[in-house]
Each structure stands twice: as C-alpha cells, then as structure tokens.
Design a protein that fits this description.
Layout lengths: L2 H10 L9 H11 L22 H12 L2
C-alpha cells in the first residue's frame, strides 16, 4: 500500500503521521482499531491474521527484516 493511502487511513483515526515510518504508522492504526500491532513481525510468512489489510506489505517487510 502506498504511503498516501496509509496516511489517509491514519487521518481517519486521528493519528499524526509527520516524521513517522510506515511501520510505526501502521502499528498505531492497528492499535487504534483494536488489533495486534504486529505489522512487519511475521516470521517465515506465518500469520493467522488472514483478513489483515496490511498482510502483503507485512510479509514483504518482515521478510527483509528476518533475512539477515
């Protein structure tokens, strides 16, 4: 998802996005929505949150994070 789309979702929830990373913004959105703030923490593409809006980006970022 593009940052502009993420910022628009954050704005709906009253979250300020200035000087924040994509990961931090999404985690704040997750908490505000009452979900786990687990974005970018999946290991080996394992996640039980199948309906998550962030799933594709999560796997992409967590793969980079855990591949080192």
């Amino acid at each position: 998802m593009h940052m502009q789309e993420i910022r628009e979702i954050a704005k709906v929830h009253g979250i300020k996005t200035a000087k924040q990373t994509k990961v931090n913004i999404i985690k704040q959105i997750q908490r505000t929505e009452g979900n786990f703030d687990c974005f970018a923490t999946a290991v080996d593409h394992q996640c039980d949150q199948t309906g998550c809006l962030w799933r594709e980006d999560c796997f992409a970022l967590s793969g980079k994070k855990h591949s080192s």
